[in-house]
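Title: Prediction job returns without error message
Component: structure pipeline
Severity: low
Priority: P3
Assignee: unassigned

Description:
Job completed but the reporter wants confirmation the result is attached to the right record. Sequence as submitted:
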Amino acid sequence: MHTTNKLLHGVSRDVVRFFFLVYGQQVNVNMIGQPALNPLQVSQFVVAPCSFIHERRVDALSQGAQPKASGLFGSSQAPRSFLPVVHAGARADAEVVSQPGGNLEQYSVVMKFGGTSLASAERMREVASIVLSFPDQMPILVLSAMGETTNQLLSAGEQSLQCSNSDQVVNMQCIQHIRKLHQSTMDQLNVDPDTVYEVEKLLKKLEQICTGIALMQECTSRTRATLVSFGERMSTRIFASFLRSLGLRARQFDAFDELGFVTTDEFENGKVLDVTYSNVAAALRHIRTELPNIAVVTGFLGRGEQTGAVTTLGRGGSDLTATIIGAALQLSEVQVWKDVDGVLSADPREVVGTIPISFLSFQEATELAYFGAQVLHPQSMRPAMDSEALCVRVKNSYNVLAPGTLIGHVRPGGTEDWLLTSIVRKKNVTMLDIISTRMLGQYGFLAKVFAVMNNAGISVDCVATSEVSVSITLDPAKLWSRDLVKEELEALVRDFEENGIARVRYTTGNSLISLIGNAERNNEIMERSFRALGRSNITVKMISQGASKTNISLLVNDEEGVTAVQAIHSEFFCASTAK
């Protein structure tokens, strides 16, 4: 107990109560020589029964949980510090911890958590500990479905077409998995009976919809949108109930009902309408007589303007929900919590010595997202981009104290010292060289080129032109659900040549390396990049600078792609680190 007292010295009484609620008396902590922790720093440690922690390294993780630490490019790195865990069976009363934002009159921040953060009861406890780590904030929590629930729900719709009766539907493996996951999570989190009843009703309705699919032998876009909505509807109800079991005031909201998210009637890719902003502001505006509470909101969902049916918001839908709420309430920050430290200077799977990026402009973040880095979907950043003050911060749920990456409007400290932000490589890129001597001095040539691409349903990545030719790159992995097979490419070539537009050569197996940074200093970026590539004997096949002035793209052979990224990264980041 002596070392426990040392750990808790200087911590607020509420945090002490929470600490002992979570971990009880059987705690082994080695904190000799460590400074006293403030309430926020308590969340840096996992303390499971008989765990041993030293200098922020976790040697025993509670209930077998393993941290997944990676950059936003998806690569594993060294384990990072875990968060405190509320153990199964732990009960709380109203005096255990203070209500977050208890002194505030309005919501102050939006915190979004994805499916991996909510994949189990254990992960939900970790999310609760994150929320409690910020006692001065009154948060709105936007949640995704638990783990792989969305994929399981989509599978349930497809597999129902192979069923002929309700018994076969109920016994489908995906339905059984969904039911078992949510029921076991409720059991472990001591969810109240009313919430258990609500979730059981949703599970029953899910089975009924799947039975309807089996009987009708069709699964429409509208039906799929309704199916996937069950994931968020269940996860938010369970988590709000868990927060209440800790003695906190928490209320669950279905964004498509109580918050008034209105979309177009594209059921699986609804566009959010402007009326949504005023609806959200009215629904979440706190009345002075009300006690502070935590709002727990379904991400990803809206309601069709004409049909009134449930719709989904497409890729990045939960992030979009969070930024819309932040913009509607005129907040200063939306936090997107992932299992990563933030955006890195390159893909750590390909480059040793990557560093986290502290700030990104919205333009840079959009370019990074398009060229392959897992930041936020450009659509989800639009509400923040259109707002004068709203910023988005990507934070690490395994490292609460890390600042993460701030995506904002104005670069702190100005742009004088800003050179290169990040390097992204896109693989398996196809290049078309379109050559025509008639292009010289002729108008309408590019219009004909893009008309052919439009008729083929192909989107162009980068363009570089000369007097008699134009080179374009195509990315099948980004915008198509198929690969650019040889037959399709040859058909594209025939369209150009048979219509007398131009002769075409194509090459596959290229890497497009995008340098995201201050293109106003492009002379320095290009000079140093080519110097690094020259030392590695790498040939550049095409150069393109984006109109956004934040991106310079270089095309090289795929087999030289990794070496090229490593050479450029070493030139800019390792050199600056050495200085």
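Comment from assignee: result matches the submitted record. Residues 2-60 form one domain.
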